Amino acid sequence: MESLNLLTALAHVNVEQGFFYVLAAIAIPLAYGVVFDRNVIRSGFLLIGVFATIAGLFFLLQAQFLGLSQILIYGVGITLVIVIALMLTNARQETGMNPALPANVGLASFVSVLVFTTIYLSLRSAEDWPLKNESSLSLPPNIEMIGKHLMTYYALPFEFASILLLAALVGAVMLSKAEPASLANAGDEAEQAVDGTDRV
Amino acid sequence: MNSAVFEIGKFARLTLLWLCIIFGAVWGVSWSIGVLLPAVILSQSGESGRFWAQLLQALVPVVAVALFVPLNTCYMVLAERRLLALFTVRKGPNRVGPDGAFQTVADALKLLLKEEITPRGADLLMYTLAPVIFFAPSIIGVMPLLAAVSGNHPLFTPVNLPTGVFYILAVSSIPVVGVVMGGWASNNKYSLVGALRSAAQAISYEIPLLLSIITVCLLAGTLDFVQIADNQRGSLLNWNILGGGALTHLGIGSPWWSIAAALLLAACCILLFALYVICACAEVNRTPFDLPEAESELVSGFNTEYSGIKFAIFFLAEYTNLFIVSTFAAVMFLGGGHAPFPGLEDACISGLRGLLAAWFGACTPFQLGWLVNSLVNPATVSQVFWIIVKSYALVWFASLIRATLPRLRIDQLMDYSWKRLVPLALILLIAVTFLKELV
Amino acid sequence: MLGMVGRAAEGFYQVCRGLWTVFKHSGRPPTTKEFPDVMPELPGAFRGRLALAVNPETGEHLCISCRQCERVCPDKCIDITAHKSPQTGKLELIDFKIDHGLCMFCGLCTEVCPTSCIINTSDFEMSEYSRGALIYDLKRLTLSQEESAYYFAKKDLPPPKPKAKPAPKPEAAGDAGESLAQQPSDVSQQPGPKAEE
Ligand code: SF4
Ligand code: SF4
Asked: Cα–Cα distance between C50 and C52 in angstroms, integer?
């Protein structure tokens, strides 16, 4: 493992911290962009960028599995669906709107301050993060462990998950087959509700 | 008849020429910066040069991929055009260079020199970023495959990940973001429709694709490419497409249920392979599923507005993705770099090695022995040879599919994925899990 | 369930058969004709560049300036300049311009021409560097005697009579496609005699 020498040499010059700051410097403007961009779809794409940089942070923490799942599920799957939903709704109406109404601002800032304090306190109170003083290279390759366990020890829960998926699929098929009036009416009502909020 | 054979011969010649160019270049560069330069540095500056030598060695996979991708695309586009010509009883491009060998190089140059146009009302940032996001995963994505395709060559081991399969799956889901981005940013209805179709298609076909790959991983018991490939060592019967060695365990005295399970497992795996091929075609927008860029309805879909180098990048990424899924299939199902009949191959190799040794031995007074050893690693050569054969065979098969099958309608496309492929994938997943235990 | 499996198997079989059929075609010699090296054999009825034929025997220009082609052209790309000759009192052709950039090669003009003067040649290589160069004048349009003879033979047109008395309308040409195409215009031109035939 000659290449590990190189990695340890790099680790000595604290590349990890450097990378952390680089990623943070990318993530924070992107996150601000998500909030402040007037174009909903663009902020959706920026959100994908934020998730990608967070996946990068996971990689830095040697949590490759988490990072990859982050990309696969949040970065691409879910956010993309949201973006597409935004595209299919009429986004042009929204550009004229002002989301920062005074009432909303109060509530929003209250919630964000609350969340920030909670996270900050919980982070500070835990004095010693177990990872903090350890060289991350000495950890067991966690992704391999997860892989092995998933394929052998946890095969049964894994199967249950797949059965759950199957059930969900069957449910989705049933829902989409049950076309009739009741559902269509529900859709209309939802639309009206959306219209109502738009006018506020 | 004669001239038909002649055409096939021409295609074979082109293929040989291009494979020599591609792999000669990749191998030459890898060897010079991975073996030659470090050796020179170490001999010149001793210990102080160790860092640089290692840095160079660490760079080998990146450089190899960066060199491989454009060259390979040039060949694949050419091969596709020639093959389509063969199947439709035409001649194909045959003007630039011998037999048109450099047609695609000329095309690429022309494309790079073309004017770049940004449509009015386009979102410039997104518009520029889209090809990059589309293309970057195909460069990053091949990395973990390198170790498996080169037979775990020491230069390429560092890029092997214990969860290479998962890594590739995660990375290969990114391009669709680029497609949606590009389609939306170019401010064109056709592009947007193409992009939305692409997203719908990618999301619905990713599920059976993932399930089929997961099933293979379950069969192999690992997510590591090198191990998956190594598990299929042996002969044709050990390949995952035939149940990953289930058939070889059978003896005369094995109980009937074991035989039945093994046969069933093999059948399931063949189905899995078919499932994978179908979904992979959909993932890389190949013909029966090329709705995102349906030329006849959407004027090439999400990349309608792109021109010049940005379009070239889209093009590059598309063909690279096709190659990646082919190599992926070769590693996952077709035994990676292992020969179908190893006995035969071993005989050939030892013969060849004897020949080489005799030849080089005759003309090498001194250092050349070391050169030969570092140049030609018979294990690597055989691995790479088989991977090349298998991957390109799959690529050509994709061309055959393109020449044959018409495009699906969008509702058929969705139906096919959700009502047919996903249940099939789930059934296969369960079946393989239990059959694997039974064998 | 079984039916579905059966249909899936059937579909799979059909797809494989299709693939095999296409694959078999790779064993056939290509039908490609490499154009600049091998010139295509075009049929007489091919509608290429327009030209004005001369009488293959005497070399006199066949156009009688009747302007039928000018009138019938849907694109109005024919421009004829003619005047009444003071000596003979007959129409005399001064200039004949066809804008090939505008022409759609429908061949209507060739069908109405009473003297088979204006014809579609088999030439299709007419790229130019400017649009102006696509407007052909009388000089560029008029064929030589040999060329006229060649096209009269190729298109199977009846040889024109000398100009003294205006040549009768050429009858329907030998090949079926042309005669079919000629029918309607013939009827519109000369309803009487056609109906009698
Ligand atoms: S071929 Fe048709 S378009 Fe051309 S000049 Fe004759 S009538 Fe006009
Ligand atoms: S129809 Fe024939 S004869 Fe009459 S003007 Fe045209 S080319 Fe001349």
From this structure: 7
| Strongest mean pLDDT among A20-24, A120-124, B160-164 | A20-24
C-alpha distances (whole Å) from B78 to each of B104, B284, B295, B387 are 6, 18, 20, 20
**Is beta strand C118-120 parallel, antiparallel or unpaired with respect to C78-84?**
unpaired
Nearest to B42 by CA among B62, B30, B57: B57
Q: What's residue A5's pLDDT?
A: 54
Of the candidates A65, A80, A151, which has its C-beta nearest B218's C-beta? A151
H or E element that contains C91:
strand C91-99
Q: How confident is the model at residue B131 (pLDDT cuts 50, 70, 90)?
A: confident
Contact status, residue C77 vs residue C98, Cβ threshold 8 Å: yes
Residue A115 has pLDDT above 90, yes or no: yes
Domain layout of chain B by residue ranges: 1-113, 120-438
Mean pLDDT over residues C3-16, rounded? 87
Backbone angles phi, psi at C15, to 5 degrees: -60, -45
Distance of alpha carbon A137 from alpha carbon A12, whole angstroms: 12
- How does the average pLDDT of chain B come out, rounded? 80
Give the total number of structural domains in chain C: 1
Q: Is the pLDDT of residue A182 over 60?
A: no
Closest protein CA for atom 3 of ligand 1: C103
In this structure, is residue C159 part of a structural domain? no
Averaged pLDDT, C22-37:
83
- Please report the number of interchain residue pairs, chain A to chain B, with beta-carbon separation below 8 angstroms: 108
Q: Is B172 in a helix, a strand, or coil?
A: helix
Q: What percent of chain B has pLDDT over 90?
A: 0
- On whether the CB atoms of residues B428 and B272 are closer than 8 A, the answer is yes
Range of the domain at C125: 50-154
Helix (H/G/I), strand (E/B), else coil: B249: coil
Q: Which residues of B touch A6 (CB under 8 A)?
A: 51, 54-55, 58
The string of DSSP codes covering B196-208 is HHHHHHHHHHHHH
User: End-to-end distance of chain C based on CA atoms, in angstroms?
Assistant: 69
Residue C12: closest C-alpha in chain B = B274
Residue C79 CB less than 6 A away from ligand 1 = no
ipTM of the complex: 0.77
- Residue B347 corresponds to which amino acid? A
The yes/no answer on whether domain A1-98 falls in CATH 3.40.50.2000 is no
Q: Which of the residues C22, C23, C37 would you substitute to probe the B interface, choosing the one with the greatest number of B C-beta atoms within 10 Å?
A: C22
3-state helix, strand, coil split of chain B in percent (to 5) is: 80, 0, 20
Angle made by CA atoms B361, B366, B370, in degrees to the nearest 5: 75
C54 CA to centre of own chain: 17
User: pLDDT per residue over B73-118, tens digit each?
Assistant: 889 988 888 888 888 888 888 888 787 888 888 888 888 888 888 8
Q: Model-level pTM? A: 0.76
Say how far apart CA B227 and CA B229 lie, in whole Å.
5
Residue C125 is predicted with a pLDDT of: 86
Q: Cα dihedral sign for A93, A98, A104, A109?
A: positive
**What is the per-residue pLDDT across A33-92, written as a single tens digit (0 to 9) for each?**
888 877 777 888 888 888 888 888 888 877 777 788 888 888 777 777 777 777 777 655
CATH code, domain with C128: 3.30.70.3270
Pairs from A11-16 (Cβ < 8 Å, separation ≥ 24): A11/A135, A11/A137, A16/A60, A16/A136
Ligand 1 atom closest to the Cα of residue C120 is 1
Mean pLDDT of B339-356: 73
